[in-house]
Amino acid sequence: MAVDIYNFYELVSAIFLLILIVFLSFKIGKILKLTANEITLIFCWHSFFALIFILVDLTDGIDSKGWYLTSSSKSLEATLFFGNNAMYAISFILKSLKMKYIAQNLFYNLLGIITIFIFYAKVKQLCKYEVNKDLFVFCVIILMLPGLSFWSSGISKDTLSIFAFALMYYSLSDKINIYLLILSFVLLFFARPFLIFFFFAGTCLYLFLDTIFSYKKKFKEKLINILIIVALIIPLLITINFGFLYMSIAEVSFENLNLYTDIFKIYETIINFIGRSQSYYAETSLGIPKDTFILYRYFYFLFAPISLQYNGIFKLIFTLENLVLLSLFIYMIVNIKFNQNRISVPIKAFYLSIFLLFLTLPIIFSNYGIALRYKWLVVPFILLAFLDLRKKVK
Asked: pLDDT band for position 44 (50/70/90)?
């Protein structure tokens, strides 16, 4: 089924949204203390990849036009309002606001532009420190890589997920903004609810480590940490079960309270899913080989594909992009510092959550296509953590 973009209503809604996102981009950019030139360059760069996203979706098809074309009022009646159901519902709501296909893509493009704004503003801030000044240009190149802009520019769960991660990071920076934090969790629940688990897990792990290794903390403070960890057990179990539902790997029912609460059953379910995932791609060239050494899986996740043969323009771009990422990680490994004294507790917990996510994703997923998208949930924050940990080192 094709999308009809050659009509008057499509043109009107697209022009209106374009004017609106230009206005909002400059408004939000100024709030983040970006200059007019910086806002304009990021806007144009990201919008260029939004155009490519639309062209790819209209020709080869991703999932975007499917969500747009088949969305209807019934989308709001879904029992499970996340994943594909949420995308259908969001598309229908935007349709109700007279936003056609291109206009909806422009709306998602705005979310991607704000995402890059947040990353750039933080890099700009962290590179003011003497130890990071020479890294500014290289960090900007990383943020402007095609992969990040492409996967955050159109109607997709990737755009919502990456934006939610960036919004959460921003809400925890400096003074905590509880409203933006809640919004980030809501958006993440709509897109990929299983990802919320890692933020609860990262918080628990940080509090546990803080309780064990912080000798300066008083008994009362350590007791509060333990109580928070206990309180987070319920959200952890709930998000795990939502993850099972999202990936269809277990029979879970919230209506009948048929939930997985036994840690051994949860572990067995995850192990079985990993085994099936790795076996599915064992005989194809679309995924990581089943018996790949565990460290190589992380290499594949971050840097595949890297090919010395020309296999088309897109694979060439991915190869060049991955070579840049590889050089970044080599530099970070050689020059990493650990000075966490001036980093706030929420941001420490956030970085730890991202690290747990990074440790998990290459093990759970074996598909190269998933890796191309999901790595942008971790790469920008690994870069920010690297700069953050160095900023007070003299």
From this structure: very high
Q: Which residues pair with 179 in a beta bridge?
A: none
The CA distances from residue 356 to 64, 103, 350, 367, in Å, are 29, 36, 10, 19
Question: Looking at this protein, which amino acid is placed at residue 22?
Answer: V
pLDDT tier, 308 (very low <50, low <70, confident <90, very high otherwise): low
Note whether 42 and 117 are within 8 A (CB).
yes
Letter string b/e over residues 274-297, b meaning 16 or more CB atoms within 10 A of that residue's CB: eeebbeebeeeeebbbeebeeeeb
Q: For residue 59, give the 3-state DSSP assignment.
A: helix
CB–CB of 390/129 below 8 Å? yes
Q: Residue 287 gets which letter from DSSP?
A: B
Contacts of 5 (CB under 8 A, 6+ apart): 58, 100, 101, 102
Q: What type of residue sits at position 151?
A: W
Going by the DSSP 8-state scheme, the letter that residue 341 receives in this structure is: T
Helix (H, G, I), strand (E, B) or coil at 367: strand
Structure tokens at 114: 């704000």
- 117 touches 164 (CB < 8 A): no
pTM summary value: 0.93
Positive or negative: CA dihedral 98, 168, 361, 75: negative
For residue 276, what pLDDT is reported?
81
Contacts of 368 (CB under 8 A, 6+ apart): 286, 287, 288, 300, 304, 305
At 235-282, the pLDDT tens digits run 999 999 888 888 888 777 766 556 788 888 888 888 888 888 777 766
Cα(226)–Cα(233) distance, integer angstroms: 11
